[in-house]
Design goal:
Length: 249
Amino acid sequence: MNLWRLEWLRILRTKRWIALFGVYVFFGFLGPLSAKYLNELLARSAELQGGPEINLPPPTPADGIAQFISNASQLGILVVAIVAAGAFVMKPEVAVFFRSRVQSTVRLLAPRYVMAVAVSSVAFLAGVAAAWYETVVLLGDLPAGAMLVGIGFEVLALAFVVAVVAAVSSRARTTLATVLISLVALLLLPLIGLIRGVGDWLPTRLIAAMNDLVREATAGDFTKAVVVTVAATIGLLWLAVWGHRTREI
């Protein structure tokens, strides 16, 4: 059995893909619904609590996608990190087994990385399909070109997230440590982005790109973030390969 099929079967049998699809599809349906009926929910809440009534502008199609992205991006990345960490962190006896039979570290890690990115991306696409359909039905049409570009940017961001986990796993000893360190690193990026002129260069800019693209942003506005994300992903994968190759079991 080759390593690609082995990794595919591992993902299927551990049922980790269910968590990914569950998160993205759930928020895909919930996001546009919450945007559509937010005014009614606020009015009802104000009525029950006896507070002042809050009136928001009528929801637009972009609001449906914004709700999906804001909810799914945070919890989605958490689940992606957990799934990816489960792929890269190996028990000592498993690591010995593979390293004694697979001479190339790249050959060992490539299926784990590619499968993690692929499953995460397909789960995200399922969520986008749900959000797109619900938004069109409830709020109106969305620009197809902007949506497709946004999907591409998000997939690139997911590839970066998995690369971060891969690099961290080369030094962390447990799945929990790998997830926590990876999440801390990813959470630091938005804080760094608060520095003037830095935010446009960070990979995290791509996570919410779809929200900006269906409003007024263009693909060119994300060129800096795309370049940095591609370079950082390649660098992190090199670190992952080097780290796993030199790591003592």
